[in-house]
Amino acid sequence: MNYVTIINNQSISLNDIPEIQYFEFFELNLGLVQDAVQRHCVNYFGFPFDKRVKLFCCIADDSTHQIYVSSTIVTAQESLLSFSAKNFGFEKFEREIHENYGLKYKDHPWLKPVRYPKNRFDQSKTMANYPFFSIDSEELHEVAVGPIHAGIIEPGHFRFICNGEQILHLEIQLGYQHRGIEQQFLNKQKLLQRATLAESIAGDTVVGHTTAFSHIWESLVDFNLTRDIAYSRTIALELERIAIHTGDLSAVCTDIAYQLGSSVFGRLRTPIVNFMQEWGGNRLSKGLIRPERNQFPFTPELAARLTEILNIYEPDFLEMNEQMFNLPSVLSRFERTGVVSHEDVLSIGTVGMAARMSGLKRDIRQSHPYLLYSEIDHKPIVKNHGDVYSRVQIRKEEVKQSMKYIRTMLNNIPHINENSIDLKTPKPNSFAISLVEGWRGEICHCAITDEKGKLSHYKIKDPSFHNWLALAIAVRNNEISDFPICNKSFNLSYAGHDL
């Protein structure tokens, strides 16, 4: 067989992953994703290998819970057939591979830079010569927004081509800020340092990314996850979802000048993040999740406190949503604004909420379950219109769903096991993958170890990597004044993209 089949949070020997010729690799993976509803690429990346580049492609089958992994070895001197010419869901992956290693493609639609990392292959490609799409017309004009924004928004540049107030095209240029996180996972040798790096990938997804790193590490050292650890992580993931969705509902209201919703949802976020501080000492959950241990066990006292908070939060949350969704001035801004079709989300390979808004049921909690999600029997919230209204509705329904899950879990708190970190070296010459459904969507971490068990490659994919293009499509034929509400309804990550 020309690929190996694994499951989420599994590590295997590198020797178990077949190395095949590039054309066979090309045909294999394009064939695997012909059914774009059931299968999609969760990661595709290059790895320096003996002055060549070894490519790994990971295709997830959402109906069987399996992940198909294959590899090939290529050189920068070759001119390769592009996956993206046949399936646009690969275009960002191939652009990154080209940017990092200089691999050439015969027929890629547009090999423009992705991130401008410090160690990029071609140092002549800079922000100053970014190849923006342009149209020569006396009737059209360009509008530039960023990279410097108001408040605490991270740097990113938005270039609009407009006909009057109507947006014809938006190009999103990122890559302004890097921390070299993937390389730092190799440079740092202490487990605590690496866990801290995972917390810093995206500041609003601390639990999601740190859980993915913890699962990678635990699979590499054959750590058997105890129920109390799985319980705490599941609770934390759903609380992070509640907190961010609530804050984003506030921000969406701000963008349409609905001050009551902005104030109430903003207030409701506070007790959720304050509980995280009561639990683990940090409102953003930093320090809460650690590999191989239950850093801050979830106790009956914490359960009582969380129940009290939810009892106060829930009626206000439901009442505010009822008022908001019955206000014609709000609905007029939400409905049919920023539409992305089902065909488009399939084509570009969106994940998480940006897939479920248009009828694509893509949710790792169901398709590749981990922690306690098999017991919960999670059912994804799916809408069909692909507009701001659908995205806001998903946030509301997912908050209600997360509260239900948490309340059920609070009825059966597991016994706390005494765990001490076993500082074993990870298995040598191994490949590991972890998928986690963050509040924004699918997170994927991959790790490769060398012959001594040291990390030799670490690859991170935040869901924003898939979804920024969906925002660019969403604003087409909308008025430029609708961009803020479209942007916030996605709330994608600059940091998670640029790494």
Question: Which key phrases capture this entry?
Answer:
single chain; 499 residues; alpha+beta; Beta Polymerase, domain 2; Cytochrome-c3 Hydrogenase, chain B; 2 domains; four-stranded antiparallel sheet; 17% strand; globular
What does this structure look like?
The chain has 2 domains: 4-114, NADH:ubiquinone oxidoreductase Nqo5 subunit (Beta Polymerase, domain 2, 2-Layer Sandwich); 181-498, Cytochrome-c3 Hydrogenase, chain B. It is built from 17 helices and 13 strands. Strands 1-5-4-3 form a 4-stranded antiparallel β-sheet, covered by helices on one side. The chain has helices spanning 22-32, 91-101, 181-187, 191-199, 206-220, 227-255, 259-280, 300-324, 328-334, 342-348, 353-356, 364-367, 373-376, 388-409, 464-474, 483-490, 494-498; strands at residues 4-7, 10-13, 39-49, 52-61, 66-74, 79-80, 104-105, 141-145, 157-163, 166-173, 430-437, 442-449, 455-461. It has 499 residues and is of the alpha+beta class.
> Total domains, how many?
2
Quickly give the CATH architecture of the largest domain: Orthogonal Bundle
Radius of gyration: 22 Å
* Lateral arrangement of strands in the main beta sheet: 1-5-4-3
SSE blueprint and pairings:
Elements: E1 4-7, E2 10-13, H1 22-32, E3 39-49, E4 52-61, E5 66-74, E6 79-80, H2 91-101, E7 104-105, E8 141-145, E9 157-163, E10 166-173, H3 181-187, H4 191-199, H5 206-220, H6 227-255, H7 259-280, H8 300-324, H9 328-334, H10 342-348, H11 353-356, H12 364-367, H13 373-376, H14 388-409, E11 430-437, E12 442-449, E13 455-461, H15 464-474, H16 483-490, H17 494-498
Parallel strand pairs: 6-7
Antiparallel strand pairs: 1-5, 2-11, 3-4, 4-5, 8-9, 9-10, 11-12, 12-13
Helix pairs in contact: 4-5, 5-6, 6-7, 6-14, 6-16, 7-8, 8-14
